[in-house]
């Protein structure tokens, strides 16, 4: 097996899809929140967490999933922003936060979207749920099904609003995954989350997300509050080419929620950075080939590789190429023949497959005999 370790230079882009993983590059930060997780959007690295897998009531933060399903219908053309949705008595009577739709009225889908996203209207949620699936109960079953498909392991929905129910539960980690999917899957509709206010029936209501009113780069997502859950927020903040997702829950007041989320976000941007390592298709190292028409083949990564780490740990970051030397021909283009391992202090190592950049054919019989003899005499693989 060959190991090659070398220093790294910045210069690439994206990284590790939609998974949320623990990079263990975590520095200690205390928080008053009962549950919390902070995740880098690009790499999926967890910067900090507290009780992130503890079952908790999501309150109105579960409306992110309600809108995920609505946006998916819009994207597929099964729903239009200009469609008129009827308002049932159940929707009209629902208490809690409201957009104040009229009984037996018809409301445009886009108005209902703003009613949910900006005003956190329970009435708007129910109207959409009933229009799409016939009942809020059927809609809730679809929410749970979609959640399982996207990897929400500890989430169950029993309603469209986040109304208190012992069976309506989630975790901070699941909400972070959901937020990441919302941003990635619906860029055309995500813009609604940054709107500061909306007026319906001559009633103007402001967005409840406190970070939107600060110069932080916040552009979403959703607050939540019930007596059982406390005050929570699933937030997204983007600065330059970097985005952080923060989920907190169990805070004692709106004031504490605003102050604590701002403090945590500032810490995340200050203490961590993303380091671009290799672009997709960029040669990392050459692998030696045994009995092939070429002596070596470049090893490349299929996707751009980027890691999140503490700023003070960057100078000690190392990358190691690992592969069985030599690689026996024939080799197919795209065949995995090694791994790139990235390590840094206080960070769990990350391994990325290395594949052959091009195919290498095997030598003919007589050529293989000659190459083997050369290897025995000179120790050089051919």
Q: Main traits of this protein?
A:
382 residues, Peptidoglycan synthesis regulatory factor (PBP3), Domain 2, Beta-lactamase, five-stranded antiparallel beta sheet, 8 helices
Word description of this protein:
- The radius of gyration is 26 Å and the shape is elongated.
- About 5% of the residues have low confidence.
- The chain is 26% helix and 29% strand.
- It is of the alpha+beta class and 382 residues long.
- α3 packs across α4 and α4 crosses α5.
- It folds into 2 domains: 113 residues, D-Ala-D-Ala carboxypeptidase, C-terminal domain (Peptidoglycan synthesis regulatory factor (PBP3), Domain 2), CATH 2.60.410; 184 residues, DD-peptidase/beta-lactamase superfamily (Beta-lactamase, 3-Layer(aba) Sandwich).
Helix content: 25-40%
CATH architecture of the largest domain: 3-Layer(aba) Sandwich
Strand content: 25-35%
How many independent structural domains?
2
- Whole-Å distance between the termini? 17 Å
Can you tell me the CATH topology of the largest domain?
Beta-lactamase
Instruction: Give the ordered list of helices and strands.
Output: EEEHEHEHHHHEEEEEHEEEEEEEEH
Q: How many E strands?
A: 18
Number of DSSP helical runs: 8
Structural class, from helix and strand content?
alpha+beta
CATH superfamily of the largest domain: DD-peptidase/beta-lactamase superfamily
Mean pLDDT: 90
| Biggest β-sheet description | 7 strands, mixed
Query: What is the global morphology?
Result: elongated
Largest sheet strand order: 1-15-17-18-13-12-16
Query: Radius of gyration, Cα only, in angstroms?
Result: 26 Å
| CATH uppermost class of the largest domain | Alpha Beta
């Amino acid at each position: 097996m060959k190991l090659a370790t070398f220093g790294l230079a910045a210069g690439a882009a994206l990284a590790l899809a939609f998974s949320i993983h623990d990079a263990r590059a975590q520095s200690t930060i205390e928080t008053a929140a009962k549950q919390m997780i902070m995740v880098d959007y690009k790499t999926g690295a967890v910067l900090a967490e507290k009780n992130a897998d503890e079952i908790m009531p999501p309150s109105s933060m579960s409306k992110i999933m309600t809108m995920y399903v609505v946006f998916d219908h819009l994207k597929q053309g099964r729903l239009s922003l200009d469609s008129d949705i009827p308002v049932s008595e159940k929707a009209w009577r629902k208490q809690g936060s409201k957009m104040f739709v009229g009984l037996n009225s018809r409301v445009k889908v886009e108005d209902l979207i703003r009613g949910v996203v900006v005003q956190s209207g329970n009435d708007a949620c129910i109207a959409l749920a009933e229009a799409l699936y016939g009942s809020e109960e059927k809609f809730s079953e679809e929410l749970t099904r979609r959640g399982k498909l996207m990897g929400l392991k500890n989430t169950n929905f029993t309603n469209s609003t986040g109304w208190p129910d012992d069976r309506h539960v989630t975790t901070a980690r699941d909400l972070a995954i959901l937020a990441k999917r919302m941003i990635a899957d619906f860029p055309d509709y995500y813009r609604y989350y940054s709107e500061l206010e909306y007026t319906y029936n001559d009633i103007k209501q402001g967005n409840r997300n406190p970070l939107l009113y600060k110069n932080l780069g916040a552009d979403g997502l959703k607050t939540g509050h019930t007596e059982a859950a406390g005050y929570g927020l699933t937030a997204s903040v983007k600065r330059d080419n970097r985005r952080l997702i923060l989920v907190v829950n169990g805070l004692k007041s709106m004031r504490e929620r605003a102050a604590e989320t701002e403090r945590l976000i500032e810490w995340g941007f200050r203490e961590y950075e993303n380091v671009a390592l290799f672009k997709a298709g960029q040669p990392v190292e050459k692998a030696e080939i045994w009995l092939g028409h070429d002596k070596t083949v470049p090893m490349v990564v299929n996707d751009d590789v980027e890691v999140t780490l503490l700023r003070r740990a960057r100078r000690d970051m190392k990358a190691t190429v690992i592969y069985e030397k030599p690689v026996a021909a024939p080799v197919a283009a795209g065949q995995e023949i090694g791994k790139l391992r990235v390590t840094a202090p206080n960070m769990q190592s990350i391994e990325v497959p290395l594949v052959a950049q091009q195919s290498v054919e095997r030598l003919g019989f007589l050529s293989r005999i000659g190459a083997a003899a050369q290897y025995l005499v000179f120790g050089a693989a051919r």
